[in-house]
């Protein structure tokens, strides 16, 4: 249950950052001057936009929740599960940013959703994954006394 809560929190925090930054940057126009003064104006624009700052805070929350997720889920499950942010981003683009989403993109969103569900539900638990890849001395320490006497312990 904690795994799914962290997955959803990470996804919604990341998508919130995407949507807030997109809205905040949309009114700024195109960046065409890549010289020092143009980049300075771009940085000034970014740090003075409330939506962009809030988006950055959402990204920070997503990062720290991903770290928590990695404590309870294997990497091969945690990172693919965050692909749900593509789904939430597309829904947010449609209903918050009022973007037109073609049907082929919706079909892709459905495929991503199915892929995430298959990945998360078929993945090993973190304790299983750690046991399979644990160093010999860690496995020996968890075994019975008779197993430890016969096992090789590496530094």
Estimate the strand proportion.
under 5%
User: Which regions are unreliable across 5 or more consecutive residues at pLDDT < 50?
Assistant: 136-155
Helix content: over 70%
Strand tally, please? 0
Number of helices: 9
Q: What's the order of the H and E elements?
A: HHHHHHHHH
User: How many domains make up the coordinates?
Assistant: 1
Structure, described:
This protein has 155 residues and is an all-alpha fold. The chain has one domain. The protein contains nine helices and no strands. α1 packs antiparallel against α3. It is globular.
SSE arrangement:
Layout: H1 2-26, H2 36-47, H3 50-72, H4 75-81, H5 84-95, H6 103-122, H7 126-132, H8 136-142, H9 145-150
Helix pairs in contact: 1-3, 1-5, 4-6, 5-6
Write a brief structural summary:
This protein has 155 residues and is mainly alpha-helical. The chain has one domain.
Which key features would you list for this structure?
single chain; 155 residues; mainly alpha; 9 helices; disordered C terminus
């Amino acid at each position: 249950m904690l795994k799914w809560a962290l997955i959803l929190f990470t996804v919604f925090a990341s998508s919130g950052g995407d949507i807030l930054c997109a809205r905040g940057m949309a009114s700024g126009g195109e960046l065409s001057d890549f010289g020092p003064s143009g980049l300075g104006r771009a940085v000034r624009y970014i740090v003075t936009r409330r939506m962009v700052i809030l988006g950055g805070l959402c990204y920070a929350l997503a990062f720290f929740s991903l770290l928590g997720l990695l404590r309870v889920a294997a990497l091969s499950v945690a990172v693919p599960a965050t692909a749900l942010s593509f789904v939430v981003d597309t829904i947010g683009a449609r209903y918050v940013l009022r973007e037109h989403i073609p049907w082929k993109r919706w079909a892709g969103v459905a495929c991503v959703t199915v892929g995430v569900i298959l990945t998360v539900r078929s993945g090993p638990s973190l304790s299983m994954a750690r046991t399979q890849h644990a160093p010999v001395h860690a496995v020996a320490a968890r075994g019975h006394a008779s197993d430890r006497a016969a096992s090789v312990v590496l530094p």
